Amino acid sequence: MQAAYRLSQTTDGPPCQASCSAWWPRQTYELDPIRFNLKKSTPHSHHHLVFPPFHPLASFLHIPQQQKKMGVITHPCIQDGWFHERNSQWPGQAMSLQVQRILHHEKSLFQDVLVFESTTFGNVLVLDGVIQCTERDEFSYQEMIAHLPLASHPNPERVLVIGGGDGGVLREIVKHESVKEAVLCDIDEAVPRVSQKYLPKMAEGLNHPKSNVIIGDGFAFLKDPKNKASFDVIITDSSDPVGPAEVLFQQPYFALLKEALKPGGHISTQAESLWVHLSLIGELRRSTKELFPVADYAFTTIPTYPAGQIGFVVCSLDAQRNVRQPLREVPNCRYYNSEVHKAAFIVPEFARKVIEDGEPAPGRVIATGEGSSTPRAPKKVLLLGSGYVAKPFAEYVTRFSEYSLTVASAKLEHSQRLIEGLHNATAASVDVNDAAALSEIIKGHDVVVSLIPYIYHAAVIKAACEHKVNVVTTSYVSDAIRELESEIQKAGITVMNEIGLDPGLDHLYAVKAIDDVHAEGGKIKSFLSYCGGLPAPEAADNPLGYKFSWSSRGVLLALRNTAKFWQDGKELTVSGPELMAAAKSFYINPAFAFVAYPNRDSTPFKQWYNIPEAETVIRGTLRYQGFPEFILALVKLGFLDEEAKDFLAYDTKASWAEVTAQMVGAASASESDLIAAIKTKVSFSSAQEEETIIRGLRWLDLFNSKAPVTVRGTAAQEAAKVSGNPLDSLCATLEDKCAYAPGERDMVMLQHKFEIETANGEHKTLTSTLLDYGIPHGTSSMSKLVGLPCAVSTRLMLEGHPALTQVGILAPYSKEICDPIRLELEKEGIALVERYV
């Protein structure tokens, strides 16, 4: 992808202007006073921001669109004039601050960024719904995370900060006279940009002559050979262990830190609260102790962090170094001094036993005494499947000590891999085609969660009915499930469906917006809802513009579904073979070239969403431009056919070129004959489209006489081992060629668009939008946005929420079901942003 950038700068401080004309036409951004150098940085050069060559943003200056003054209705965390930090990382507690006004809100490439002015804590920076700093108390954190490793090092000259884009840690580092250079590497450019404007006292560290600010992936920076053994001290100023910061709490990251340190070097890393993350702290100290001869935990107090306390793991490569003993005073501090330094390492006895002695952390407290609840037996959760979306589900459920989790998949090793590092989790294997084995493994659980292909859900539900076990799935309610209604009612169980991303998260915010409009006397005249799970733009590097973050078979099967919808008061149908031809351009913002096509049957949603007044109701899928034409060609050529073919025998030695010749009826397997035959079956709209599709088929190796075909089939065909089919055999190739490379990100875009007629006859357009990116080397966006809604619903069911324990088949179409799930997901930083446009 190419983009033009223009930079202007002077040495005496006027704003730096930057525009990216290919992505954000007619938009110019001012960043003052940071200066940019896209090619080369030199030590001690004056406050500049560098995009290193290993970072995907190096090819263009990528600055997200600023918030438009178009009337943000609300931020999910701000209600009735109060910001509420609710998060399942610290269950049962919340932090609330009164809001004077919202100053800034955007969805950056990596996280939700909010700044508001509070009534008593000054300006507040919030990332993904979690307070990062306030002007009133930030110094207690910044001073301690910086001075604990620096003041105990005899001569720190070169210091690295990973994260910390707000600049506060840099401000503290440069107080040490020995420091010659302070390098900061933060993955999200939005943080320093926003901090410059709204947190100027912290951001002054970004502008210091010793500071060198780099926007890039900390992992990639540390892996760069030129940074080996380069730093005296490395400080990791990260947010909590979810989202972009997840990988910064894992041992591979600490190994990179060790390699980047000079002999005798120190590290300090944000290490959470004793009262909230004691298990994590114990694990952090154990994993760092394996790499560093000295590894200690210290803490500070800060009123706006969970439980009013936050900690740090401080390590040294020098076995004789005492990081608890400061070697010098640090001037101009408001919290830190030498006595505080020494006292910070003295932890309460309950925490010391976990951190130093390795005892398990205490579990959730059960009330005792008068009025206490009766202790209950642990709830048992069975998860069927260990695929793309299972990990976030498992991680969420095992946060809660009152649940035990069994993960069962076709192969035991897959289950074992999934539960590595999880508490109260057991691995198992099961063949879901074996009714007796399926029944046996479901028995004794409180809920079974089916994250296996939808064709098996009916079998799971039948077995669950036998043992009166509730069921949760992320799939649409199929006819096969509806046929089990009487068995479900007789068993008295709840079967919750459609609670992933799409369907799932889309329902939650459609129901919310519709209910809000109706409550004010308005009408929904048109409802469009489109969702796409895609590669992030820099990873969309194949002819499909698509990579698989879930079942490739499921993706392709969905493209064969007939679509029905309402448009301008008429009920229309598009057959599966013609679905891709119905795709149209769909504008969300100028950064993306999307097409959209209808998905399944949208017509019942007039009733299910309670919008009988709507003339247009379309739910559909987003893809990048070029995808529909390519898929339509595969359909025309028969590659999405599930029928067994003799030329796809399981013992075949045929090449893809030979199989393609059979598919298209070519005279031979030569490329020229294959292309000639393809042209008789596919009608191209232009020479450019023909060239693009032929090039794509070539890229898939379908003309390659040396590329062996991997034969696959349906479950029945696999069991018979006679012949496979084109669809499943193509999936084998797609999963190889369209897989995400290490470090690549996926992306989810979801938007509802409502055309509204208000009570007074005014016509307005409301959008509800989610743009979310996966984490390089971490959790994918798709897995998070499917797994967490499912996990939250499962937890609410286990806790006996009345809306999610109704007997029968449920789906999130009502306010009563949607609201509790939506509010819990907002605690996880998952929310759509509503705007009138």
UniProtKB/TrEMBL annotation:
Keywords linked to the UniProt accession: Amino-acid biosynthesis, Lysine biosynthesis, NADP, Oxidoreductase, Polyamine biosynthesis, Transferase
InterPro entries, alphabetized: AASS, NAD(P)-bd_dom_sf, PABS, PABS_CS, Sacchrp_dh-like_C, Sacchrp_dh_NADP-bd, SAM-dependent_MTases_sf, Spermi_synthase
GO biological process: lysine biosynthetic process via aminoadipic acid; pantothenate biosynthetic process; polyamine biosynthetic process
Residue positions of the active site: D237
Coiled coil: none
Record-annotated PABS domain positions: 80-317
Pfam families to which the protein is assigned, alphabetical: Sacchrp_dh_C, Sacchrp_dh_NADP, Spermine_synt_N, Spermine_synth
EC code(s) of this entry: 1.5.1.10
Top EC class of this enzyme: oxidoreductase
An example Gene Ontology molecular-function term: saccharopine dehydrogenase (NADP+, L-glutamate-forming) activity
GO cellular component: cytoplasm
Reactions catalysed, as given in the entry: L-saccharopine + NADP(+) + H2O = (S)-2-amino-6-oxohexanoate + L-glutamate + NADPH + H(+)
Pathway(s) where this gene product acts: Amino-acid biosynthesis; L-lysine biosynthesis via AAA pathway; L-lysine from L-alpha-aminoadipate (fungal route): step 2/3
CDD domains: AdoMet_MTases (cd02440)
Flavoprotein among keywords: no
HAMAP family (UniProt xref): Spermidine_synth
Family per similarity comment: Belongs to the saccharopine dehydrogenase family. Belongs to the spermidine/spermine synthase family.
Full protein name: Saccharopine dehydrogenase [NADP(+), L-glutamate-forming]
